[in-house]
Design goal:
With about 425 residues, this protein is of the alpha+beta class. It has helices spanning about 5-10, 65-80, 85-95, 95-110, 125-140, 150-160, 185-205, 230-240, 250-260, 265-270, 300-305, 330-335, 345-360, 365-370, 375-380, 390-405; strands at about 20, 30-35, 40-45, 50-60, 170, 175-180, 275, 280-285, 290-295. The protein contains 16 helices and nine strands. Strands 1-2-3-4 form a four-stranded antiparallel sheet, covered by helices on one side. The chain has a three-stranded antiparallel sheet with strand order 7-8-9. A two-stranded antiparallel sheet has the order 5-6. A hairpin with a 5-residue loop joins strand 5 and strand 6. The chain is elongated, with a radius of gyration of 32 Å.
Length: about 425
Amino acid sequence: MSALTKRTLDAAKPRVERYFVWCGSLSGFGARVYPSGRKVFIAQVRVGRGQRRVTIGAFGAFTVEQARKQAEAIIRAAAEGRDPQREKQEARAAITVAELCDEYLTAARAGLVMTRFKRPKPPATVAIDQGRVSRHIKPLIGKVTARDLKRADVQRMADDIAQGKTAGIFAGKPRGRAVVTGGAGTAARVVELLGGIYSWAEKRELVPGPSPTRGVETARGEAKDRVVNGDELRALGKAIDENEGRSPLAVAALRPIALTGLRREEACALKWSEIDAAGSCLRLESSKTGRSTRPIGKPARDVLQALPRLSQRWVFPNRGDTGSAELKGSIAELFNAAGLSDARSHDLRRTFGSIAADEGYSDATIAELLGHARRGVTHRHYIRRPDAALGAAADRVSARIAAALAAGDDRAEVVPLRPGA
């Protein structure tokens, strides 16, 4: 039997039933000839006690030499004890990076993805993840098979994001839009998210390890130190007063944020049941670090107690009273109205901590006031009331901020956080 050649296949005429033309120089390599005249290369190998006929491709799409090389690889794999047919089927069924991201997001929405605090990712964080997946990961590497993604692919993605190649304006929530600028900071966060997705997938044997994000170079973000000084707080207080009729919910939420150091998400999602006026604290059922008890000063208590009850559950309800209000844009407009386009609500949280440090309070006290992550059985498992020292600290800090927010009050001066402090 001679070697399989183009001339041999050209001479093979169709019959009533399909038949095989085998190569005499490479055992197991051949072509199947169909009654229609179509000819398809195959490799026949033994796997265990049975035989497999693995389809390589049609004659024409493959030359004889190209098919021979494919057959040699299939025969070699079988000799090593692997199942080429199964590997081919698995490769065909392998999910793409886009599909892997979709599975991750579905699991995250179901509460099956944990944060570093061993708690389910909150819906707001999942929404941010979804935006990074749809606007950066999918357009750049979404079509790549997840298990075949290489570090070089991720590095190119990070470089493209850093250069703004995924920038644009996208449709967001109803009557809203998302402005995506990209940049080095965004690239680092997207790579971090992709690393988390692969870590989650590896535990479930959806992809092999190690993660292709390992070793990818991204710019290190500088720690932000923006605080709102005395003049700026007075300007913000004036903007709050002037916009109370136009944006009542945003105004109502921004005051407690300034007076307590709450995160914007925590303030907007506040429930009436979480306000413990007698204990001079907030007992948050859920926060970035889980359940959290926050001491609040008298100015903050007075503001909260004066708020109208628009809902039985939510302090700041949405229009249908089906959940809390999303006030990010409205609060940002208040900062813009005050001439503080480079500042946002989280800068007020940093300002709260800065004033506490200026008052001489320790890092531990400031951490308690801001609800930073704590360790220890007592903190995790027992409901407690902030002690008198914490209450006094909250009173003092919130009183200074309340005075500064009062337009034209020159008695209050906010000392910015010193660099490196």
